[in-house]
Model the fold of this input.
Amino acid sequence: MAFELPALPYDYGTLEPHVDSQTMLIHHTKHHQAYVNNLNAALDKFPELKDLGLVDINKAVGTTKLPGDVATTIRNNGGGHYNHTFFWKVMTNPSNTNGPSGAVKEAIEAAFGSVDEMKTKFNAAAAGRFGSGWAWLGVKGDGSLAITSTPNQDNPLMASLPDTTAMVPILGLDVWEHAYYLKYQNRRPEYIAAWWNVVNWEQVAANFDAAKTGAVLL
Amino acid sequence: YIVISALYIQTHFSHRVVHRNKDFLVCVTKMLARGLLTAARESFSAIPSMSRLISTVKLPDLPYDYGALEPYISGQIMELHHMKHHAAYVANLNKALEQQAEAEAKGDVSKIITLQGAIKFNGGGHINHDIFWTNLVPPKDFEPPSGELKALIEAQWKSLDNFINTFNAQTAAVQGSGWGWLGYNKGTGRLEITTMPNQDPLSVTGLVPLLGVDVWEHAYYLQYKNVRPDYLKAIWNVVNWKNVADRLVAAKK
Done:
């Protein structure tokens, strides 16, 4: 069973003006599609890895479960496929977003003091990631929330990588230049600030509820 | 003498002097109040800690107009790349170096250590782009490689085309942000193709940088979008082989 590019849960223009439609189109049909194609090609010789499923493939990065000659390709493209599949779902029509509520809001306040303070930390992680990468809000093994950033297409599921803070992600932001350059050019902080307008807090809450039981929604 | 010397240093060097103004004023007051000899002895002992000279880097001018590399690299990209990206590396490097000097003066080793990431990112960014602008030339002035450089390329890769294909294959495969490099190995006397992540400078490998190609997405995205290989095909129309040859000559010295 080959991996497939998931459909976006909305139109390419839905996140305007915060994330432009041309970026969404290229990001989805070119960048994410390439990760899917490359992952399938790498796993052609290892069908048993395909059966692991995308989440467990990501968890296997940095372990001996992945054969040496495809380990890097799987890290880059398995990571890329999970990250973007996750990313499309934590965004939504800007008119939908009301901010966090319920259990996830309490958890945010417990970990960071307030939602605003969480955003400040998240923004710093996103702006401060040098080169390509992602910023994450996630649930750690002890059930607490934390913020981290990862390089390239790594993510917090890759617990066996030496520099990774292991977490189940509940919210993530792509800060590769392709995610914002057409509209924001070098102005990454402006992109990060605008992106909060399209965060799908319902999905974040669902991700959080699953993470508290140790499950990774996909 | 001390005041005049300090003013001379300030105005005649392109360095920034980090004062301890309070110490300076205390010295001057003492000089006036207590008599020249005593104050002079105290002032001379205060000089080493009174000021620190730190180097700052400057954004170099491009050797051509922003639009001069069209149609291979757009003027919009060149302007953003130079005025925003490279300028930010320069500004952030200078800031980090100033903070490092202050930390050194205080003996704050922990602080010095925490600054090394910023110095590496921004220092590398400055070094790399400083080289890059000189590695490019308007297409009307393009000349293919000749002489010893051509001979070395052909000795190793059979032909210029094969060199370019090999370089492009490796450089297109850079994951995330980074650079493709043609470098000179002083030990073996050979040319080498390699890639570096983020803004890590080639010099840390021991190779002498001759030609760099920036494959951070900001270097091509506005024009080529996700199609990095198209950018890599186009850029060879604006490579300044004369500059590459000059760098080779300098490297062999």
About this structure: Strands of chain A lie at 133-139, 145-151, 168-174. Residues 21-43 of chain A form the longest helix (23 residues). The longest strand of chain A covers residues 133-139. The mean pLDDT of chain A is 96.
